[in-house]
Design goal:
- There is one protein chain.
- The protein is of the alpha/beta class.
- 49% of the residues lie in helices and 13% in strands.
- The protein has an eight-stranded mixed sheet with strand order 3-2-1-4-5-6-7-8, sandwiched between helices.
- Strand 1, helix 1 and strand 2 form a beta-alpha-beta unit.
- Helix 9 runs antiparallel to helix 10.
- It starts with a strand and ends with a helix.
- The mean pLDDT is 95.
Length: 252
Amino acid sequence: MILLYGTGRAATHLGHAFVKAGVQVVGVVGRNEEARNALAKVLGTKAYSKRDELPKADVILLAIADDAIEKVALKFPQSEAVIVHCSGARSLDALEPHADRGVLWPIQTLGTGEPIDLSTAPLVIDSNTDHARTVLSELAKKVSSNVVELAHDKRQRVHLAAVLTSNLPVFLVREGQRLLRAADLPTTLLEPLWRETAKRITELGPEAALTGPARRGDIRTIKQHLDQLADDPDLRDAYALLSKLIMRAHGF
């Protein structure tokens, strides 16, 4: 039985994954009444405010922003439940003073839209006691066939790699679309490119999938691009630095 604390994207995707896996969600706790009622309704459970008497649970999952974990954990009533956060970057210490602490972190983008299928996504767990480890391992294996146990230092490295792999490229897609809109061009022109790039990275690996002027050492084209970004110095600097890193990695 899980008590879900939070109503945002992580809480929504994980909540749906628990229900799909047949794990009982005994309640949703949240500050915003409308949000907690809405999430509780779709998960088929009850909504609670922080002031309510909360139901008993085997796991209390804090699906909240990283910076809020320590504050919420400190104020959350201590119980026999394993208290868990879903951050790849924060340590188990953030959940003190609770006796049984753990991490349940899906290595997957948890954005807006339809609930994501986590059944094959890497699901990272960590714990501070044998009891917490047993409870989390059983829970994680119900949700995903790909469960990995990683200590904090390893999770931090994976989290950094995940940001480089997912968050930064998505932001660059946004910037590319912004440049097209500024020139009255449709952003859909980039969609086939993005889909094919993602497919080739998965099938061939990033070394074989990488193309473009920096990969070819095409200095003239790079200079032309930098000239086009003269009025956008931050993006210009980012383009120049990334191009430099690519060229250096490929011997130019």
